[in-house]
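can u pls check wat happens w/ S-adenosylmethionine
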Amino acid sequence: MKGSELPPELFRRQDETPDHRFYAEPRFVTHIDDATIIALTEYYRETLRAGDRLLDLMSSWVSHLPGDVVYGDVAGLGMNREELAANPRLDRFEVRDLNADPTLPWEDSRFDTVMIAVSIQYLIAPFEVFSEIVRVLKDGGRCIIAMSHRLFPTKAVYAFQTLSLADRCRLVAAYMESTGAIGNIESIDRSPANADPLWIVTGRRLPR
Ligand SMILES: C[S@@+](CC[C@H](N)C(=O)[O-])C[C@H]1O[C@@H](n2cnc3c(N)ncnc32)[C@H](O)[C@@H]1O
């Protein structure tokens, strides 16, 4: 599915002002329950290898990576410099509004994994961002999109406020499929009991 085949209203939001205003002040908070963070960290422990080069897109002051694993290089990209500077897992970071400029400032085939945690609902041009994700991923590299149900309602696109859970997972799978370069796409429910849910859509970069 191409982005042009979907109703454009799905990618609009209540607050269309430039995102830098909304993210000007740092928010040193977590956006999902502790048990859900533990479930995401456990998933990362199972799927990422020590020494991997990682890109945490739409990052903040936390990346939810297991604290005892040493990765090769962890890059982050987000909207707030103070949050990114306080993130102990990032070796480098960029401040960039992907809704104004959906390009990624890294070279081709740099990363073993690109992840987005609880933030995919804020992208207004996801198909452009995913074409960049496949560019910076190594062949065989993973894309991991973790989602829950909390959101900033004025900034989340309507798709994530109106579609069912199953359709939100299908939509993220469509972002991946649209690249023509991601296979093995799966949706996984890792929701802990009595806490915010955790749904993960993941796929692998096909060989070039
Ligand atoms: C709900 S927070 C999640 C942060 C972090 N990934 C986590 O798991 O706690 C949403 C994040 O998306 C990022 N973000 C929102 N809009 C963005 C945009 N237009 N471009 C880049 N990052 C964006 C913000 O910087 C913020 O850190």
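The two ends are 20 Å apart (CA to CA).
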